[in-house]
């Protein structure tokens, strides 16, 4: 029997339930996958809470790494015994499990120098950082960005990638301890928003000009401040809503604040093309394997601790990467 975390109604972390299930044989286009590590991502809370609607009951999580134990008819991209990782959206939902059936198409073969725990930390976060750094904006170097939640799992990868591109990084954090973590990963300037004015500090750091790009995973609480941190014709990239959904706004405000741009991208649209996906995968794995981007797992949970893991995540107790180990 396999263990799986499911939820039958949306709500807080308490709706997550651990169940024993039987995993059958894979159907056409599917594989049976034995998980070794499962990623913990803030997006998981969006499915659980209902921000991202799905049919119920359903599973949680869409990032994990493991070993293929059986393949169904028509599967040619992977074979039994292959070490793989995956991320996706609704087509991979249900990663919080010890074993599962999954479509073969999203699977990514792991190189020997990437272990399972690391893979479960970087497939979603790392590919998110990859498209943010390589597809969203044509960075020319010698530019400055503002990164909210700089000490988070995506944030620490973005910091390191940005430094590889020659960018100056201003990061925001909620505690002095997180500020030290962000600095240790290369963040040039760290703003503790619990007692510092973000807009004022950004303007001070940039000589009043503002930043080229803001990466904002917080949402409602930071949206207007993020706009005010941008230079003329700057870009706000809304990559999450940890504090709640961004309220409706008049687009004319973008003109008044400097002919600004706003985008709300999703990872699925940047890995939909297999060629582009493989390009991002190769660059990500190459940086990690070489040590140019380091991944340190701060917290490991058992699958049965999913409720506590979500509580820690939503209370911003977590720093950097966290995984479930199977």
TrEMBL record:
Species of provenance: Acidovorax bellezanensis
Keywords attached to this entry: NADP, Oxidoreductase
InterPro entries: ADH-like_C (IPR013149), ADH-like_N (IPR013154), ER (IPR020843), GroES-like_sf (IPR011032), NAD(P)-bd_dom_sf (IPR036291), QOR-like (IPR047618), Quin_OxRdtase/zeta-crystal_CS (IPR002364)
Protein name in the entry: Quinone oxidoreductase
Pfam families documented for this protein: ADH_N (PF08240), ADH_zinc_N (PF00107)
Enoyl reductase (ER) domain segment(s): 11-324
């Amino acid at each position: 029997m396999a263990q799986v975390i499911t939820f039958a109604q949306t709500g807080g972390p308490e709706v997550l339930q651990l169940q024993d299930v039987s995993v059958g044989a894979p159907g056409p286009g599917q594989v049976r996958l034995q998980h070794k590590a499962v990623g913990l991502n803030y997006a998981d809370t969006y499915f659980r809470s209902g921000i991202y609607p799905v049919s119920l009951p359903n599973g949680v999580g869409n990032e994990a790494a493991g070993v293929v134990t059986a393949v169904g008819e028509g599967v040619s991209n992977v074979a039994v015994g292959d070490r793989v990782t995956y991320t996706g959206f609704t087509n991979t939902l249900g990663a919080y499990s010890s074993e599962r059936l999954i479509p073969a198409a999203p699977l990514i073969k792991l190189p020997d120098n990437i272990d399972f725990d690391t893979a479960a930390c970087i497939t979603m976060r790392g590919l998110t950082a990859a498209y943010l750094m390589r597809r969203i904006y044509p960075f020319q170097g010698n530019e400055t960005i503002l990164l909210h939640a700089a000490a988070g799992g995506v944030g620490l990868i973005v910091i390191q990638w940005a430094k590889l591109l020659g960018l100056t990084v201003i990061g925001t954090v909620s505690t002095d301890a997180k500020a030290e973590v962000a600095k240790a990963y290369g963040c040039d300037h760290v703003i503790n928003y619990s007692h510092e004015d973000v807009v004022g500090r950004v303007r001070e750091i940039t000589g009043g000009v503002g930043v080229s790009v803001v990466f904002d995973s917080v949402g409602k609480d930071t949206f207007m401040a993020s706009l005010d941190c941008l230079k003329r014709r700057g870009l706000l990239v809304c990559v999450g809503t940890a504090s709640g959904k961004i309220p409706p706004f008049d687009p004319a405000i973008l003109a008044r604040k400097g002919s600004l741009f706003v985008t709300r991208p999703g990872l699925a649209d940047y890995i939909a093309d297999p060629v582009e996906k493989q390009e991002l995968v190769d660059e990500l794995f190459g940086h990690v394997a070489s040590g140019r981007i380091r991944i340190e797992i701060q917290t490991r949970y058992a699958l049965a601790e999913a409720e506590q893991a979500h509580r820690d995540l939503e209370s911003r107790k977590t720093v950097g990467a966290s995984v479930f180990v199977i």
